[in-house]
Write a structure and sequence with these properties.
binds flavin-adenine dinucleotide, alpha+beta, globular, 17 helices
Length: 659
């Protein structure tokens, strides 16, 4: 029988909760310059915004990242935009509507109160970023512009061309730099957290590796915040930056932090298809393209076969022979259905043989209609850098006219296919973003908090910045308030020495295996197992096979890995080996969770549980909970702990994007 935990959500109707809660908080006056230290691990949007805000509030912040500059955190990859309920388009948007769309988009598996709070602070984020000088796109009259993202029938996405993440990160970085200059934030670039140190049951510090010298260093503080991103790279091929890893989160999990909903992994429908087995990275084509691009495959199987054989091109297929399958299946949302729905629909068409490239694993994203309607200049203004990125990778420019049939111009369509993109699961946190280890907090993509079983487009940046600018800086004070009387612990404590010794011994172990296989070759194999058995369509049988194969491959890793070089100085292969060790733990966790959840919801699709139309079939009676996992040692099955979900403001129902 699984244990049940409480998320510490205060009682009361949802819209009141956050206000009530705020009123009861023991808020520390931000003007007081406190002598409290906080470690923030990560300088992506979540980490940089949190470090800057905590510094501004007077805390002494130690901020670490693995890149050579916070500006190179993975968050710069974000293209399409960030959501907020400003209702600038006067299209009926509201905080409630953003809250509702997010809960529905997450297939009713998110914690309702958290999502309400997120929607409530969404507008403040835009104001904050505008004040920092983030160059959001504007209308001709000067108002901030918006576009639409999946799962919403309003236009609430704020954007800066196709570089929204980069611009937001530059804004956060400028605030962070102010605090570095003021002496409140001490920045450690090229440092990697290898372990969290627990003293008397509380997180009191970390062990970090200086990636340039190879030396291990100890950091102590009154609280530790991890903002280290998601675990998408467990699948090897993903849209995530190459450096993304889950080592910090997995170490916290090993030290007792619960890991929540690991099986909720997002597969994004619009990525450039895999083109060979030498690839190490997949490229996202932003969801914003679905505002004007239409997704289709041929209606006739013989056309599909000709496309696969290369004897026909997409632009030779006339309008009447095209199947705009999303518009056909989901008339109300069309091409803007949520990502999980769009990805499954693409897979369904390709599985039926309608794929449009030589592997049969691609569909078209076509701008012919919108270019004919709006003109190429407008389309280039909106998506210019994305079209150029696509051309650089595929040598096809989607704005090039390719054919004319009955007076209608046809442009070269993009080819896209679903790929691993984002992880909704993450370290379990309560309403205050504190993990199950007191003093340890998790924010941004590395926590599980707001997206349920599927994240809506443009909501990750919203959540990361909500956590960093507006939630954590308040909630962490509830923990730190009684820490004011605690002295900062010394890094000479045996707990630090022991943690450091273990990290050091692990590096020796990996270096001394002296086998024959490179880290990448094993990681690639793990990725194949994950995609094949723990990917877009899962079955109990497949998951068991996947787990077995992962165990075998982990044994191979432990016995036949080759890591060149030494511990001293820069050793990227050693760092990758540490990451891969943790991807194994993560991959198994994803599979355990997927196996235990006998239902389909959002990004977790168990083929045994689907409706006649192939939609995800939830089982609210038995699975209306957050599945949290507690580590039980290497090779042992983790323990499941349940946090029951409670919905008060939203009626839980079957998701419908058809009408
Ligand atoms: C191609 C792409 C496009 C996207 N577009 C959008 C979009 O348009 N809108 C949207 O809302 N979302 C988008 N997303 C998702 C969004 O970008 C991410 O979810 C978000 O940026 C994550 O931010 P983060 O701060 O939580 O983590 P990250 O940006 O991943 O930052 C993690 C930080 O932790 C540090 N770190 C990691 N491990 C360690 C360690 N062990 N020790 C020390 N430091 C460590 C890293 O150095 C980094 O600074 C996109 C994602 C991708 C891949």
């Amino acid at each position: 029988m699984a244990k049940v935990i409480d998320s510490k959500i205060p009682a009361g109707p949802v819209p009141e909760k956050w206000k009530e809660y705020k009123a009861h908080q023991r808020l520390v006056n931000p003007k007081n310059k406190l002598k409290l230290d906080v470690i923030v691990v990560g300088t992506g949007l979540a980490g940089a915004s949190a470090a800057a805000s905590l510094g501004e509030m007077g805390f002494n912040v130690i901020n670490l990242c693995i890149q050579d500059s916070p500006r190179r955190a993975h968050s710069i990859a974000a293209q399409g935009g960030i959501n907020a309920a400003k209702c600038y388009q006067n299209d009926g948007d509201s905080i409630y509507r953003l809250f509702y769309d997010t809960v529905k988009g997450g297939d009713y598996r998110a914690r309702e109160a958290n999502v309400y709070r997120l929607a409530e602070v969404s507008n403040n984020i835009i104001d904050q970023c505008v004040a920092q000088g983030v160059p959001f796109a504007r209308e001709y009259g000067g108002m901030l512009a918006n576009r639409s993202f999946g799962g919403a029938q309003v236009s609430r996405t704020f954007y800066a061309k196709g570089q929204t993440g980069q611009q937001l990160l530059l804004g956060a970085y400028s605030s962070l730099s102010c605090q570095v200059q003021a002496g409140k934030v001490k920045l450690y670039t090229r440092y990697e957290m290898e372990d969290v140190v627990i003293v008397d049951g509380r997180a009191r510090g970390i062990i970090a590796k200086n990636l340039c010298t190879g030396k291990l260093e100890r950091f102590s503080a009154n609280a530790v915040v991890i903002a280290t991103g998601g675990y998408g790279n467990t699948y090897f091929l993903s849209t995530n930056a190459m450096g993304c890893n889950c080592t910090a989160a997995v170490q916290c999990y090993r030290k007792g932090a619960y890991f929540a909903n690991p099986s909720y992994v997002q597969i994004h429908p619009t990525c450039i298809p895999v083109h060979g087995d030498k690839q190490s990275k997949l490229t996202l084509m932003s969801e914003s393209l679905r505002n004007d691009g239409r997704i289709w495959v041929p209606k006739k199987i013989e056309d599909a076969k000709a496309l696969q054989a290369g004897t026909k091109q997409g632009w030779e297929i006339p309008e009447e022979d095209r199947d705009y399958y999303l518009e056909r299946r989901y008339p109300a949302f069309g091409n803007l259905v949520p990502r999980d729905v769009a990805s499954r629909a693409a897979k369904e068409r390709c599985d039926k043989g309608f794929g449009v490239n030589n592997t049969g694993l691609a569909v078209f994203l076509d701008f012919s209609e919108s270019i004919n309607r709006l003109g190429i200049d407008i389309i280039m203004q909106r998506y210019g850098n994305l079209f150029e990125m696509y051309e650089e990778i595929t040598d096809v420019f989607p704005g090039d006219v390719a054919n004319e049939i009955n007076g209608v111009k046809y442009y070269k369509p993009m080819m896209i296919y679903p790929a691993i993109h984002y992880t909704m699961g993450g370290i379990w946190v309560d309403y205050e973003l504190q993990t199950s280890i007191p003093g340890l907090f998790a924010i941004g993509e590395c926590n599980f908090s707001d997206h349920g079983a599927n994240r809506l487009g443009a909501s990750a940046l919203m959540q990361g910045l909500a956590d960093g600018y507006f939630v954590l800086p308040y909630t962490i004070q509830n923990y730190l308030a009684d820490q004011a009387v605690w002295p900062k612990v010394s890094t000479d404590l045996p707990e630090f020495a022991e943690a450091e010794k273990k990290v050091d011994a692990e590096m020796d172990r990996l270096l001394n295996i002296k086998g024959k296989r490179s880290v990448d070759s094993i990681h690639k194999e793990l990725g194949h197992i994950m995609w094949e058995y723990v990917g877009m369509g899962r079955t109990a049988e497949g998951l068991k096979t996947g787990l077995k194969k992962m165990h075998e491959l982990e044994k191979e890793f432990d016995e036949n890995l080759f890591v060149p070089g030494t511990k001293e100085g820069l050793n990227i292969e050693l760092d990758k080996a540490i990451h891969l060790r943790d991807f194994f733990t993560m991959g198994q966790l994803v599979a355990f969770d997927a196996l235990s959840r006998n239902e389909s919801c959002g990004g977790h699709f168990r083929e045994e549980y689907q409706t006649e139309e192939g939609e995800a079939k939830r089982d609210d009676e038995n699975y209306f909970y957050v599945g949290c996992w507690e580590y039980q040692g290497k090779g042992n099955e983790p323990t499941l702990i349940k946090e029951p979900l409670e919905y008060e403001a939203i009626k839980v129902q079957t998701r419908n994007y058809k009408n």
